[in-house]
Structures are given as structure tokens and as C-alpha cells.
Amino acid sequence: MGTEGRMATLSDLLSWSGLVLSIAIYLATLVFYRLFLHPLSRFPGPKLAAISRWYEVYYDVVQNGQYTFKIAELHKQYGPIIRISPYELHVNDPSFFDHLYRQDGMWDKYDWSVDAFAAQGALLFTPHLPF
Fold it and tell me: How far apart are CA 128 and CA 123, in angstroms?
């Protein structure tokens, strides 16, 4: 294979169809991971909510802030503990609150959760306590 053959292959990889194919493969892999391999995949809830946060955006933006009421409906359909986003569970079971809101131990947080409210570096929102 000469230089011309290698350049043709490189230009094929960088074409629009190659880019679209790469994005489609990435999104399909992400959907598969979130539905079947993610640690929260065993919890019930709508599959669209498990795939993307756009489910929440729809109810909060398009339906004018109705996501809170939708969560109540989802609890009736799926039970006391449901998956409401790729990274979140919602609990409607008072017997489970002691496990959720305990004071002991270290709790790791996602970076986007730590930097909430533009409080970067604040003690309350740090992923690891300094002591």
C-alpha cells in the first residue's frame, strides 16, 4: 500500500460518515452501559431516565416543573426506590432514611456535584474531607 492508499484510508476515517458512525457507536455503547452495566442498573425506573437527564429536562422545562409530580407517579408504578437519572435514585421509604442520611463514614461525590453552587473548594462541597 503506497502513500496514496494510506491517505485515502485516513480521509475515509475523517469523513462525515465516519464521524457520524463513531458518534453512533459511542452513544449505543453509553446506552448499553447505563441500562445493563451501571451500578444503578438493577433499580427500577423509566429506561429513558436511566439513559439520559433529558427525561428530567422534559418534565422541568417543557412540562413547566412537573418532574416532582412525575416522580410521585413513578413511585406508584415502580415502588419505593426508583432510578430517576443515570446517576440518581429517589427514595420514598422512611425505613431507608437512616441508611441514606447517616453521619459516619466518607462519601465520595461526583465532580459536578462537588462544584455545585459555584462553591469550589468549600468544605461543605468537597469530595473528601481534609481530616
Answer: 9
- Report the half-sphere exposure of 75 (CA within 13 A, side-chain side): 13
CA–chain centroid gap for 12, Å, is: 33
Cell numbers linked to 61? 422545562
* DSSP per-residue letters across 54-97: HHHHIIIIITTS-HHHHHHHHHHHH-SEEEEETTEEEE--GGGH
pTM over 0.85: no
Q: Within the chain, how many helices (H) and strands (E) appear?
A: 7, 2
Question: Which DSSP state fits 118?
Answer: G
Strands 81-85 and 88-91: antiparallel
The string of pLDDT tens digits covering residues 94-127 is 888 777 776 676 666 666 666 666 666 555 545 5
CB-based contacts of 62, cutoff 8 Å, min separation 6: none
Q: Is 14 exposed, middle or buried (0-12, 13-18, 19+ CB in 10 A)?
A: exposed
